[in-house]
Amino acid sequence: MRALSSPLRLRVLRLCAFESRTNKELAELLGVNPGTMLHHVRTLVQTGYLAAEPERSGAQGAREVPYRATGLSWRTSMPGSAPVLVETFLQQIEGVADEDLDVTWLGLKLNAEHKVELARRLHDLAQEFKDRGPDPDGDTYSLFTAFHPDDNPPAAH
Question: Is the pTM of this model over 0.90?
Answer without folding.
Answer: no
